Amino acid sequence: MAEVMKIQAILYSPGNDVEYLLLKRPEARGGYWTPITGHVEKNEKLLDALAREIAEETGITELTYVIDLRVPFRFEKGGDSFEEHAFGVQVDTKDVRLSGEHTEFAWLTYREASSRLRWEEHRSSLQVLNDMINQ
To answer: CA end-to-end span of the chain, whole Å?
Structure first.
């Protein structure tokens, strides 16, 4: 069994009504909405993986503020053990250039984003981030 490190990035745009970015996977890969997720490559630091995955999946390279949500999740899939570290990432642009990994994107309010997320771990991360932003 391999131990795999992953990152989860919830991008948000501040303002009177904070909006969160979700991406939709193709139907062949489940067709569900998700924050940015990705594998940490060998010898790569978490924050380097975070910036790389955000750039690969959205084209966004300018990260204004990064919050470690301190909510790592562990799960098993296909005989491997995964540990996913969640981050909130403030960005100053809503211009998204999707990679082939996703078919759609949407900037959504907290309630809208939470209702679209399939996995409880992603909803938990979103809630932690939303609570931190709105303290």
So the answer is: 41
21 CB-near residues (< 8 Å, 6+ apart): 10, 11, 12, 13, 35, 36, 58, 91, 94, 96, 105, 106, 107, 108
Map out the domains of the chain with their CATH numbers.
Answer: 3-133 (3.90.79.10)
CB distance 23 to 36 below 8 Å? yes
DSSP conformational letter for 114: H
Give the pTM: 0.92
Element (DSSP H or E) covering residue 81: strand 80-90
Token couple for 29: 């890969």
Q: Is residue 132 within a helix (H) or strand (E), and if so which, with residue range?
A: helix 120-133
What pLDDT, in 10s, does the model give residues 87-125? 999 999 999 999 989 999 999 999 999 999 998 889 999
